[in-house]
Amino acid sequence: MVRRMKITFADMRAAGVRGILVYCCDYRCSHSIALMADRWPDDLGLSDFEPSFVCLACGKRGGDVRPNFSWNVTAPVGGMGYR
């Protein structure tokens, strides 16, 4: 049996999830943001672009990206930026 390690946006969308949660990589900062994932291509893995995020609160580069299973009820909040 082959085990896939990376979740792609296509996998996430196939499960009915259209949003992501991005958490600051610094556990002491703990800022986060909810984003709609429509702008990223299907073949991109969620972990492939984690280094591109920069926390707007503490300035650290990198983020922990996870599917937002409550994407249709969670209002986006500030805290992280994508570059």
Describe this structure in words.
With 83 residues, the protein is mainly beta. The protein has one domain. Helices cover 7% and strands 27% of the residues. It is built from one helix and five strands, in the order αβββββ. The strands form two sheets. A three-stranded antiparallel beta sheet has the order 2-1-4, with no helix packed on it. The radius of gyration is 13 Å and the shape is globular. The termini are far apart.
List keywords for this structure.
83 residues, mainly beta, 3-stranded antiparallel beta sheet, two-stranded antiparallel sheet, 1 helix
The ordered H/E elements are HEEEEE
Give the % helix: under 10%
Radius of gyration: 13 Å
The fraction of residues assigned to DSSP E strands is 25-35%
Tell me about the largest β-sheet. 3 strands, antiparallel
Q: Uncertain regions: pLDDT < 50 for 5+ in a row?
A: none
Q: How would you describe the shape?
A: globular
Q: Biggest sheet, strands in spatial order?
A: 2-1-4
Mean pLDDT: 83
Give me the secondary-structure category: mainly beta
Distance between the termini: 37 Å
Number of strands: 5
Please, how many helices?
1
How many domains? The number is: 1
In brief, what are we looking at here?
This protein is mainly beta and 83 residues long. It has one domain (9-82).
Please give the structural blueprint.
Blueprint: H1 9-14, E1 19-24, E2 32-36, E3 53-55, E4 63-67, E5 80-82
Antiparallel strand pairs: 1-2, 1-4, 3-5
